[in-house]
Amino acid sequence: MSKFLLRRLILMLPVLFGIVVVTFVIARSIPGEPCTAMYGEKATPAVCEALTIRLGLDKSIPEQLVIYMGNALRGDFGDSVQRGRPVTDLLVERLPTTIELASIALIFAVVLGVPLGITAAYYRNSPIDLVTMIIANIGVSMPVFWLALMLKVLFSVTLKDSFLYLPPSGSLPAGYASSIVPFYVSWGLATKETASPFLIFISQFNILNGILTLNFDLVFQAMRYLILPAIAVGTIPLAIIARMTRSSLVDALNQDYIRTARAKGLKERVVVVRHGLRNAMLPVITIIGLNFGYLVSGAVLTETIFGLTGVGRTLFDAITARDYQVIQAVTLIVAFSFVFINLLVDLMYGFLDPRIRLS
Questions:
Q1: What are phi and psi of 79, to 5 degrees?
Q2: CA distances from residue 207 to 47, 108, 202, 219, 221 in whole angstroms, order as listed
Q3: pTM of the full predicted structure?
Q4: 214 vs 3, 195, 218, 252, CA distance in Å?
Q5: CA-based torsion, 3, 4, 6, 7: positive or negative
Q6: At what angle do helices 216-253 and 127-141 cross, to 10 degrees?
Q7: For position 54, what pLDDT does the model report?
Q8: Are the C-beta atoms of 339 and 15 separated by less than 8 Å?
Q9: What contacts 163, CB < 8 A, 6 or more positions away?
């Protein structure tokens, strides 16, 4: 196991390096320049020349790449041209929002998708199977932006005066958010001025911060405000997981060892769950891992519609403004999340199927 982990960690390095190089070159090949995107009509030649020199864009791309890689290895991703702030500070503030949304959306997709898939497989070729797969196909077919808008109309407008009302925004109200006490202040570890970036990063997860400070009202409100965004972004993964679970479990239930288990007189529930589902979960685990990576990287529309300030919306704004530093940093973070999730999926394989040897 240790050799497998070491080998995978070493293989991560060239992958991440290649992603940085490709992103670096493509970002600088996009038509337009930061000066024009930032200053518009005020982008005089003198202003643009000064900005180009300040950002180091007057150097060749290989020189810029070497400088960027050297700074990145020290944890310095440069400053955002658009916002005039260190990119690291932006990631510390905004990445938790996206991870929190992606996590809740994935929980929603798995908790509903896997049971739907199991039900469809158990009652395969029956009306229950047909209805379940129709629901899954509808879920896959609905665009995220359309579903998000429909959810807002239904739960925030139509049901405004009922107990089913849900906030149209994914962000906590400004007054409520400003009153939140970070866990490191509550625990006496640091003040807001002296806290390390790591403590600030952890405290940006509202649900986790609420649990650590025993502020269960914060936990409730944070989850309440994320229900609609999580449903909107998690519906397509839910449908994919349900379909994959169904097809994988149907294939597993047709194997010889399942017939042997039934011949021994085991209960059908034991045969399906203990023998069939465990072997059917390998491709499902892969889909779940990939979907979490997609949720982290693909929440641009959802964050925009629900007013969430996460890395998806930050990346969109950075691309519009030709903010190279932010584009590269977010892309690197997303790439690392995909690689890390794939590593966890491989480790899960060995747990689910002992026949798979990782060493």
A1: -110, 145
A2: 44, 16, 10, 5, 9
A3: 0.84
A4: 41, 20, 9, 44
A5: positive
A6: 120
A7: 76
A8: yes
A9: none
Cβ 298 vs Cβ 55: under 8 Å: no
Which tokens belong to 161? 């005066």
Torsion of Cα atoms, 59 then 65 then 68 then 70, to 10°: -110
Looking at residue 273, the DSSP 8-state letter turns out to be I
And the tokens for 322?
Answer: 């030709």
| Residues 261 and 275 sit within 8 Å (Cβ to Cβ) | yes
**Residues in the chain, overall count:** 359
Q: DSSP string covering 176-205, please?
A: HHHTPPPHHHHTTS--TTT--HHHHHHHT-
CA separation for the pair 216, 200 (Å, rounded): 20
Estimate to the nearest angstrom the gap between the alpha carbon of 238 and the chain centroid.
14
Instruction: Give the whole-angstrom CA distance, residue 54 versus residue 50.
Output: 6
Helix (H, G, I), strand (E, B) or coil at 265: coil
- Three-point CA angle 133, 134, 140, nearest 5°: 85
Tens digit of pLDDT for each residue in 116-153? 999 998 888 889 989 988 888 888 888 888 999 999 99
* Among 194, 197, 195, 226, CA closest to 210: 226
Taking the C-alpha atoms of residue 325 and residue 92, their distance in angstroms, rounded to an integer, is 15
Q: How much is the average pLDDT of 279-308?
A: 82
Residue 250 to residues 141, 168, 285, 289, Cα–Cα distance (Å): 23, 40, 16, 21
